[in-house]
User: What shape does this take?
Amino acid sequence: MYVAVKGGEAAIANAHRLLADRRRGDRDLPAITNDQVVAQLSLAVDRVMAEASLYDPALAALAIRQARGDMIEAIFILRAYRTTLPRFGSSLPVETGEMAIERRISATYKDLPGGQLLGPTFDYTHRLLDPALLEDGDVPEGTRRPASGEPAMRVSDILSGEGLIEGDGEAGGENGPGDITRTPMEFPMGRDVRLQALARGDEGFLLALAYSTQRGYARTHPFAGEIRIGSVEVEIETPELGFAAPLGRLKLTECQMINQFKGSASAPPQFTRGYGLVFGQSERKAMAMALVDRALRADEFGEDRTAPAQDEEFVISHCDNVQATGFVEHLKLPHYVDFQAELDLVRRMRREYEAARHPADDASEAAE
Amino acid sequence: MTPKEYAMDRPAQAGSVLDPVLRRRLMAVLARLPRQRLESILAQIAPDVEIHPVRGPETGLVMVRGRIGGGGSPFNLGEATVSRATVRLSTGEIGHGQLLGTDRQHARLAAILDALHQRGDHQGAIAAFITDSEAELAQAERRQAEETAATRVDFFTMVRGDD
Assistant: This one.
């Protein structure tokens, strides 16, 4: 028989103390500061902000340090923190066309207004470990060249001028866009709600799904029409001011994926699109999001839904790594009673199995 | 009393006499400059200003919206931390401060400077502060734009040597 017990209080307290000790590590080494994490592990900070769905580099860095570098744990901590704060309102939609650009590339046009701006990219590096980083040597500043001042026209606008590509996309009800943090998700969902879910979705999960579309599970013939990274101004409508109050700038990555055509008897063929927008600098995530966004639009284009990446309920229900880790990791919690019941059950089944197999033995035993 | 009710109570104080474009420019620089810069300008122009809190300072969230496809319908991208404060000067002017992040003291300083700007007795100093700050922020932006421009690809055509 199982008797419910309490316990483990001292063990838990000591485990947490040990966690703090191991997190600090060798006391002969200096502790990492928050500012160092923000400045030198900035892409880790960006990922935590994106998947926690909360933009705050200092708090994301704190979460990373607290989690000893475990990204999903850090995302979890930051996501939990956001639930403690009141919502002041919503910003005006940010204008990515007016981004202060740090990187902008197009794989569809070689020469385009504003040019191909590589920015601080890992592309074209050789992916060789660099022992020079082991030494704390001087790092030269970036080369500078007068900026042309030529505006970086959106690639989708270049194509839409000729009517060769579908429009940006309309979705959402009269009361503005849906919000998964306020309303339980329902399927099928609008593209506005889907993009919100994808924007906070796990990079690895979305990357794998995006990859699956390229390998033939819902092929969409994608081109990276444009990827841009930079900062945009955030403003909030403020009735008492009579104008939208500026709050500062935040960094975003945007991906415009261009996909193969769709036309009908009433509309000439044109390119279709997938869209990705992510907090911080994260073009892998933005690209994956755009590919998955396009795959999930299968019904809009009358495409057969045959692959996982086209299954909205499957993709959206499983892309949140905080939910996923919560349910997977809860298996660690005590299931002693559940398991005791299963144990009793399997023993009873085995007795019945043995009894069915050897009825004669039973009978002879009974006779003895 | 909420700031909005207060403003409606005193329509003449609702900022109508001041150029809203200049006020917006002030708010934009107050949100982006380091807090120390706000402390120093305040110490310079009105070190002993008497302030009554109206709201906050407090930290909360703003849902940041994007647009589908970059220019279509809005969607909710994710939240950002925002700190805000509203203060009233003893002479009645209401100031608002709001910015990304959790620095409530920064928001409060921004609200005080907004209120002082509306009182009008430091207009010259504040206008100079706006101009100088914008120049400083523009310089940082220009630097980044120039570093980015240096990574612009200059395509050239390979010329075959067998002419």
